[in-house]
Amino acid sequence: MTTLHLPIDRSSATPIHRQIYEGIRGAILEGRLRSGRRIPSSRALAMELAVSRLPVLTAYAQLLHEGYLEGRVGSGTFVSASLPDDLLLTRSTATGLRSTTRVSPPAPSPDDGYGGLGPFRMSLPALDEFPHTLWNRLVARQAHALPHAAMAYGDPAGWMPLRAAIADHLRLARAVRCEAEQILVVPGSQAALRLAAAVLLARGDRVAMEEPGYPGARAALTADGAELVPVPVDDEGMSVAALWTRGRRVRVVYVTPSHQYPLGTAMSAARRLALLEWAVARDAWVLEDDYDSEYRYVSRPLGALQGMDGHERVIYVGTFSKVLFPALRIGYLVVPCTLWSRFMHARWAFDLFPPTLYQAVLAEFLRGGHYVRHLRRMRAIYHGRRDALLGGLARHCGERLNVLNADGGLHVTMRLADGLDDADVVARMARRGLTATALSSCYKGRERRSGLLLGFGGSTERRLAEAARVLGEVLRADRG
Amino acid sequence: MTTLHLPIDRSSATPIHRQIYEGIRGAILEGRLRSGRRIPSSRALAMELAVSRLPVLTAYAQLLHEGYLEGRVGSGTFVSASLPDDLLLTRSTATGLRSTTRVSPPAPSPDDGYGGLGPFRMSLPALDEFPHTLWNRLVARQAHALPHAAMAYGDPAGWMPLRAAIADHLRLARAVRCEAEQILVVPGSQAALRLAAAVLLARGDRVAMEEPGYPGARAALTADGAELVPVPVDDEGMSVAALWTRGRRVRVVYVTPSHQYPLGTAMSAARRLALLEWAVARDAWVLEDDYDSEYRYVSRPLGALQGMDGHERVIYVGTFSKVLFPALRIGYLVVPCTLWSRFMHARWAFDLFPPTLYQAVLAEFLRGGHYVRHLRRMRAIYHGRRDALLGGLARHCGERLNVLNADGGLHVTMRLADGLDDADVVARMARRGLTATALSSCYKGRERRSGLLLGFGGSTERRLAEAARVLGEVLRADRG
Fold first, then answer.
1. Residue B13 contacts A, CB cutoff 8 Å
2. How far apart are CA A164 and CA A364, in angstroms?
3. What is the pLDDT of residues B250-278, one digit of tens each?
4. Are A137 and A163 in contact (CB under 8 A)?
5. B254 and B349 fall within a common domain
6. Do A327 and B150 touch (CB under 8 A)?
7. What is the pLDDT of residue A125?
8. Interface predicted TM-score (ipTM) of this complex, two decimals
9. Are residues B218 and B303 in the same domain?
10. Do B368 and A91 contact (CB within 8 A), yes or no?
11. What span, in angstroms and rounded, lies between the C-alpha atoms of B300 and B457?
């Protein structure tokens, strides 16, 4: 049992629970709290700090989510054996959880034009380049135009004009085979995966995931008690051969074919066909998460796996969080006809229907051609940011890391030179204000490669070049 | 096996799936399709109508939700044994599902100023009296003011200023004991119940519900395989005596103490204390759904059950769907500290965080005092609508029905004179354009009282008086 010496400032604008959260997180990142160490119960810490138990519980809950702590509040809480960055720095949660302090107050902190959305953070679009004026005009117009009926109860599957617009876009841009009636609007890809798990996976069923893979998907796919089966990834994507041998009793396979998370490779056509063949033979389902497919810098974007599926085995998952902005909370599934009614049942039990206003705004944004224009514009901007990052890395970190893949998406994946422990590097980067994801945190099994995932979507070329310089110093510095 | 003669008009603006839905629903309501009859498989009907299978599946899915059909698409689909109105006409789904046709087109149909939100529909607020101009001004302002950080990832528990505003309001208006840190923002009460079920109920666990009770809660509470235990309601609310005898192995009790759904009675103080005593003794949880507590016409609103709970056994559920508008999709839970981290885990797996814009708008609406002013104003309007309905019923339907309760909320509950079958009456009302809920549809067990639930929130006094006249004709007319 450790006693934490957390400096709590009651006069500060930062809420107590946030101060506790940051105190403990800092202690872990700086190594003052080591892996496996037991931390005080919420009750004990509350007494020690002379605060109510609530802020302590809030802080613990966040640290548990982010993977800094393990165990359950009450029955003993410990510093995680493997430093997280798992949930924390991958494409969603943590950005969410970390941005809380900045989100809660009306304005971002002055010291940071991005409201704390620092360089290398994963899954952040270029909010500074978002067409705010146009978007807000559409919001105001749609809010004004919303008929009474649209303020009442909506279609559980989503606002039909939006579903139609999404289907049109997917057919053209992603070669997805779909009708508007197959589009199920949900609050994001996390919700889509959670919903698919509720429909397709029962306790004890097995779900296969890429190894390494997207840690955020684990929580959703195993929420109903399914068992995770990691399947290795090579430079053609998930190994279907391994799936044949290890995949017995696997009901669902989760894949990211157009831009493998985290390695960034695209699944080869041959591998795609083999996967579909396996799914048909095993009567299993394929969950295709097309999270980051819009941006390719070295070749044309690849069509979706779903478009190659002649047997309705693929459930396609997409989100607008990365092309537009995460707080939009609109994602969608393309559901095979045979599963439609089961998904509708489950969707409705989760929540009656999605909020209407943003659906109407997004439908107009898509139909008005703004979406395609936005994509084209952002592709050029992200291409520039990617090149700035790669240039900076070559200049400042050349010998210490080698880029595995930078062909597409909003992050670059690289291996660290031997002897460099990625979790340690990430911790030291954090002390310099840099946010990165450790490649090792994307592995479920013991065998992990040491590397970094650096997001470049949310920072300007200047900040990325500067951040690369700082990273170089971190990599050259001796440990600690 | 029946052949359905559905008139499909390809030139019509109404989507095919909607035409099929309405055709089958009409056939059931008009008795052309009788209970228990098997209907064609989606494939067969698609061929018969020479349409693709998708619209047929969409239509079947909706009819399944609404309880018109039972069984699963593919393995045979049948007309329900008990006419639904269950989901269809209770406070949520159906209004949702039925309003689809009207919601999808940009404008409500001209023949109906309410976009098809006809008289007696349950759970509809007075959208015609909603302060649209003020609300839209706040929407435009908040959309404009939203900092970049607020467009990124938000707090999974909700936007802190909103949580603080909700906690302040609940303490004052509902005597709820809570801190902002206990408020968990969700898309509505359905989502709140689904989340509570995911946290508190495992397959095989037992959950107690009022009998009669809110059918919409069943889907959410049993989604993870929990078993439902109906507990009778008398004029003091749920019978705790019955709970003691039948409540063995019950982990969770779902109650609507301030305005029992559907009967409208308020749970007595003695009964509330007895329920809390039972929960402590049995180490069980109480789910308080305070869905309709803001409006009382004969006495002061009662405080929440949660406020009487000294042992943190109550999870409080609230929504803004009825006071503001359903498409807002903002509800909340007040979570006991001991359960907080478990709820946060589950919440995050369902969806990373709630969309930010409407949270910011609602926070300003609450803090600016607009919410309380709105409540006061609406209370007077609803009082007038309730009186208009009661007056009309006394004038036109006096001898055929007797009002059980009209003390509060947005609907009036009444018994039908002997010999009148409520499902039949509801079906005949539907043919006259009236939407009502059969009291019998709120029972789980076989023993059911015949009565009507008539919503008055969404219609003007004039329309309610006229609708009461029509209802009188329906009640006096001979069957069919």
1. no
2. 11
3. 999 999 999 999 999 999 999 999 999 99
4. no
5. yes
6. yes
7. 94
8. 0.76
9. yes
10. no
11. 19
Query: Is residue B156 domain-shared with residue B90, that is, in the same domain?
Result: no
Report the SS3 class of residue B57.
Answer: helix
CB A139 within 8 A of CB B151: no
CATH number of the domain residue A59 falls in: 1.10.10.10
Please give the model's pTM, rounded to 2 decimal places: 0.78
At A92, list the tokens. Answer: 């969603």
Looking at beta carbons, which residues of chain A come within 8 Å of B149?
99, 102-103, 108, 114-117
Does residue A167 sit within a domain?
yes
% of chain A residues with pLDDT over 70: 89
CATH classification at residue B428: 3.90.1150.10
B442 secondary structure, DSSP code:
G
Whether omega before B15 lies within 30 degrees of 0, making that bond cis, reads no
Sheet holding B331-334, edge to edge: B183-186, B331-334, B314-319, B285-289, B250-255, B206-211, B227-234, B237-238
Is there a contact between B130 and A153 if contact means CB atoms under 8 Å apart?
Answer: no
Maximum separation of any 2 CA atoms in chain B, in Å: 64
Task: Locate all alpha helices (DSSP H) within B317-367, ordered by sequence.
Answer: 340-350, 356-367
Mutation for testing the A interface, residue in B177, B351, B357 having most A CBs under 10 Å: B351
B87 and B44 in a common domain: yes
Tell me if B160 and A104 make a contact (CB, 8 A cut-off). yes
Last residue of a domain, one of B344, B367, B390: B367
Contact assessment for residue B331 and residue B189, using Cβ atoms and an 8 Å cutoff: yes
> Are the beta carbons of B437 and B85 closer than 8 angstroms?
yes
- Exposed e or buried b per residue across B304-343, where buried means at least 16 C-beta atoms within 10 angstroms of its C-beta: bbbbbbeebbbbbbbbbbbbbbbbbbbbbbbbbbebbbbb
What the block records as the tokens of A233 is: 């990834």
What is the number of structural domains in chain A? 3
Domain residues for the domain of A455 are: 373-479
Cβ A149–B345 below 8 Å, yes or no? no
Domain assignment of residue A117, yes or no: no
Residue A4 in any domain: the answer is no
| Residue A85 confidence class, pLDDT cut points 50, 70, 90 | very low
Optimal mutation site among B95, B138, B148, interface A, most CBs of chain A within 10 A: B148
Same domain membership, residue A458 and residue A337 = no
